[in-house]
Amino acid sequence: MPGDAPITPLSIPAKVRTLIVYGGSFDPPHFYHTIGPLSIVGRLFGPQGWVLYVPAARSPHKPDGPHAGDEHRLAMLRLALDVPGPRSIWTDELDRARWRRERGLGTPSYTIDTLRRLRRIIPSRVSLRLLIGSDQVGAFHRWKDPREIIRLAEPIVMVREPVVSACSVYSALDKDFWSRDELRAWCTRLAPNFPMDPSSTSVRDAIPKAPKDPDRWEDRPPLNEIVTPVARYIIEHNLYGFRAGHVKAATPVDRPSGDQPDAMKKLELAAGLTLIQVGQKMLSDAAASKPPKTKPRKKHPRAKARGRRKSSS
């Protein structure tokens, strides 16, 4: 729009043909934010796919706003993404929000605005896809210009609890808003990932009682969903009420290193093992929740005899 902030430059490899846009508060970033999208892009698009992480300034769907400042969330996201894989971070929403604040123009971040700005600076050969969590599907019709979003970047739905199947996706959708064809299309957009249930809210709630040693977070769910460098950053800067006192100023963190040869193979192996473990845990939890099987009681010989006499009479 006229007078809007300049678009933050973006560079992606020439081999890329599909750019998966993954936005969020990342407050803080955890396992679901990293391995999930990176394994999905490898399985669906191979070496021609790329994940673009877009940290949000203030989501209109989260009126309370981020709990950590923009600089802290960006620093933690860079630490969380310091793994091999086809990914980069685009700070256009944060940059645009700062530009507007400096001019007294506060406004939330809308996905449609971000996609329009992105489409203007990437090559026409690159198609856009929007990665969202399955828990967001039910409210998607309330997003700004939802059908225009789908036209610009058809969604890919990353499965997470409690919406874990095409049936539950269909049940979550607003039947008064979407047509039958649109409902059918939504049911075909599920990504090939195991359902996961960690949320930034549950992680934040656990931080005030977290150990002072970040290495010990690995043994404490849901803190173990945070990689150690991010845990160390949270402790050092006293984020999310880790202890009493003031939050320290953000520390700059280098951008994640670029894609590496055979990175996707390594990622697929790591993600595959992790997801298998997730699946095994789900199966073991389900088995543990079932009541124990009981053997049928044997009839007493006299009861059997009475049964024979009744049948013969």
Topology readout:
Elements: E1 18-24, H1 31-45, E2 49-55, H2 70-80, E3 87-89, H3 92-101, H4 111-121, E4 127-133, H5 146-152, E5 153-158, H6 166-172, H7 180-186, H8 200-206, H9 228-237, H10 263-289, H11 301-312
Helix pairs in contact: 1-10, 2-9, 4-5
What separation lies between the terminal Cα atoms?
A: 93 Å
CATH architecture of the domain at 18-197: 3-Layer(aba) Sandwich
- How much helical structure, as a percent, in the residues? 25-40%
Low-confidence stretches: 260-264, 270-290, 309-313
Please give the count of helices: 11
Would you list the SSEs in sequence order as H and E? EHEHEHHEHEHHHHHH
Level-1 CATH class name of the domain at 18-197: Alpha Beta
What's the quick description here?
This protein has eleven helices and five strands; from the N terminus they run E-H-E-H-E-H-H-E-H-E-H-H-H-H-H-H. It has 313 residues and is an alpha/beta fold.
Can you put this structure into words, describing what you see?
The protein has 313 residues and is an alpha/beta fold. The protein has a domain at 18-197: Rossmann fold. It contains eleven helices and five strands. Helix 5 links the parallel strand 4 and strand 5 (153-158). The longest helix has 27 residues, at 263-289.
